[in-house]
Design goal:
471 residues, alpha+beta, Creatine Amidinohydrolase, Chain A, domain 1, Creatine Amidinohydrolase, 2 domains, three-stranded antiparallel beta sheet, 16 helices, 13% strand
Amino acid sequence: MFEKEVYVARRRALLQKMKDCKGVVLMLGNVDSPAQYRDNCYKWRQDSTWLYFFGIDEPRFAATIDLESGEEVIYADDFSLDDIIWMGPMPSVASLAAKCGVEKVAPYDALKDALKGRQVHFIPASRHYNASLLSSLLSLDPSEVVCRGKKACPKASEELVKAVIEMRLVKEPREIEQIEHACNIGYRMHTAARKGIRIGELEQRIVGQMEAVTLSEGWGVSFSTILTQHGEIFHCHSHDCLVESGKLMVVDAGAENNMHYASDFTRTYPTGGKFTARQRDIYTIVYECNELVYNMVRPGVSYRDAHLAVAAHMLGGLKDLGLVKGKVDDMVAEGVCGLFMPHGLGHNMGLDVHDMEDYGEDLVGYDPDQSRSSQLGLGSLRMARRLREGNVITDEPGIYFIPALIDQYRRQGTFADMVNYSALEKYYDFGGIRLEDDLLITADGVRRLGQKRLPIAPDDVEQAMKEDNLY
């Protein structure tokens, strides 16, 4: 936990932002989630909103904040003797509450009576248990208390959600320190991955070496590790292949530190230590796009504009290779880039690797005067807002050759006058390339987070692999 004054100040700021609202704010921590049976649970992870405002990293806690009187109450139960037998002596609820500056505590089951007759402001639930609890406490259908897709939750308090988003989008200096710490763990995690890439090695062993770093230095991974020689599959979590010569290995992975702040890096490596001419051509375009973003972003710049700038540069590079044709501006307007980069340029990052997206992606990632595109790629942009000092975002352009998508577009005649489909046939076995850094928007520009930057320029990647593995 941070010092208690941090949580007191955050809740005070929230009250100020909601000063015109009546009723109570309800916040729920997570509970243990059984994997097979009650006493065999998934790894414990606290709810991020709860961590932000209360910091108590224990299961089955809840709280109310009275918007009219300012009274704060934490609801939880002290451990029973049976709990102590299995888990040892544990701090009291009152002592934990005092650590975050809350004086009043009550049993967990007292929550229902405390809400009777009150207008209740709540954040969308991200776990099944909390969705069930909210629906029971508030007499709502469970589907009404969770987000569906990218849209806002039907019954969650828009005033509360928007107030919390405004607070969490701009990271405090202490949060930046924690994210940077997670990035430093991530650097060592990715270095272990790069050193593990040897012809004939099992991918699972490389993943094990990577994730050992995160468990020995922090909480673990910030999301399920992606390590694959099939980079055209964005979220490939199977690691049962042997490393083959001549392939591209995409490693998209992050660390979560013990304060639960995240990092998220991606690098793409030639499995034999050197890029082929064709691989280097595509890799160089992606690398230039990554650098373009870094040189472009600063306070006031829309990240949507950064995505479009990447699309233009990418299509220009692919045009030089004979894979697309026509005017670049026309191709950008038509959304041709989505054939090669069907995802958005980046996302917010903080206590979650995709920070606050459980609140509704459109509310988190878009300014009120922005709307989501229907184009493939641009329509998947998770962060489009005008950037502000203190935003932490990812910069992750990529180029992928997805045979099923290419074939479908070709059959349908999509972009027939702009895409050289016959030239794309020789790329069906290419895979994909993604390069990702974590960026902090500063008062006058941007900086990359982490004490060191993982090798990324093509020559530097080859040199690092030579030094690692004597290729």
